Amino acid sequence: MTNDKRQRGVSRRRFLGAATASVAAATIVPRHVLGERADRRPPSETITYGVIGNGGRKDAGLRGKKDFERIAVCDVDIKRIGGEPDGKTRFTDYRKMLERKEIDVVCIGTPPHWHALPCLHAAQAGKDIFCEKPFTKFIAEGRAVADAVKRYGVIFQIGTFGRFGKQGEGDRQNRKIIKYGLIKDLSDLVASGGGRNRTGDPSLPRVEDIPESLDYEMWLGPAPFKPYNPKRVHYSNRFYWDYEGGDLTNFGHHSMDPLLYLYGKDHTAPVRVEPGPSPWPEHPDCVGKYSWIECTYADGMRVLFGGGGHKAEYDRPRKRSRVSVDDLDEEGKKRYEALPDLAKLVDFGTAVRTRQQSGGHAEASHRVSTLMNLCNVAIRLNRTIRFDPVKEVIVGDDEAARLVDIPMRAPWHL
Question: What is the DSSP letter of 214?
Answer without folding.
Answer: B
